[in-house]
Design brief:
By secondary structure, the chain is an alpha/beta fold. The protein contains 14 helices and 13 strands. The strands form 3 sheets. It has a 7-stranded mixed β-sheet with strand order 2-8-7-6-5-3-4, sandwiched between helices. It has a 4-stranded antiparallel β-sheet with strand order 9-10-13-12. Helix 8 links the parallel strand 6 and strand 7. Helix 1 runs parallel beside helix 13, helix 4 crosses helix 10 and helix 12 packs parallel to helix 14. It is globular. It binds pyridoxal-5'-phosphate (PLP).
Length: 381
Amino acid sequence: MIPIDSKLPSVGTTIFTVMSRLAADLGAINLSQGFPDFDCDPELIDAVARHMREGRNQYAPMQGVLPLRQAIANKYEAYYGRRYDPDTEVTVTSGGTEAIFDAVAAVVRPGDEVIVLEPCYDSYVPAIELAGGTPVVVSLTFPQYAVDWDAMRRAVTPRTRMIMINSPHNPTGAVLGPAEIDRLSALVDGSRILILSDEVYEHIIFDGLRHESMARYDALAARSFIVGSFGKTYHTTGWKVGYTVAPAALTTEFRKVHQFVTFATNTPVQYAIADFLAVRRGLDELAPFYQAKRDLFLRLMEGSRFTPLPCRGSYFQLMDYSAITDEPDADFAIRLTRESGVASIPTSPFLYRQRPPTVLRFCFAKKDKTLEDAAARLVRV
Ligand SMILES: Cc1ncc(COP(=O)(O)O)c(C=O)c1O
């Protein structure tokens, strides 16, 4: 055996794999991993099949097929008032995860620091570490999951190359508002700091709130890679198609990485998504659709010993279980799966410094019947 000195020694099997496997083994209701248990629009599947039959089955252009890049650019203009050039500022990727990896790999060098806000999506820190950068973790406040701007200011150094933000936020459902945008703008003003803005839940935002895309703000857009995912928007997480929009100079560097990570993304799926996105099909329905699911889940959980935390976007609901037990979150998540038949996700795998609070994440991107069955079990806990 040739000894391997792991480049990611602290990375094991992700909690999503562990919990989904446990749910499958035990026949539990799976509210753990973030994916819908219902299908996408059948016409989207028809569109993929049609593009396949019409022979769009070979490599797509490295930067993505033109109709999809045009549709993405048009959407940004219509929703956020910024025109990105489809030729030089829009790149289609194999999911948001690839886009995050490419952006970090493109601009982060050994010695650079990258600020992440914990709890954070689990791919951020490994991407930074593989690029040789140093993750600088700033904790969101509990239980509001708000940004501590004093801590952010203290975290910024001359070596800070990037700040990674995510709104609507996984796993907490927190959303950045205009006040946070002002604080962020002031923080990076005059610096060389780039922003990676993970906006994969951009259309899943509730209670009449407006998604504060970096694209809305000149000074922020000028230094931002914005990441999106059609897996979230079109209920097709298994298709793994996402994208990045960024100013041309950033996109040039981004594409240098993308072309050697995946080179290009699934061709017929890109064309089918372009057909839908060009007419903005399904976008505006997404927020009310998921808000109704959030509200249903909350209503069904009334009278349980779980206490919901505010969820203003994404398809995740955090529940405080301190009225039930003070067990560590991962232990309780496993016990809840075994004893009550509902799988959830602890927040500890999203945390690096903070002591994990007594909360679990439940994904409500599920059929109403699934939520009803899960809640019927959870209210008995
Ligand atoms: C916050 C966040 N960013 C990025 C992604 C990755 O998206 P994709 O499935 O398109 O790779 C996810 C998926 O769960 C996510 O929750």
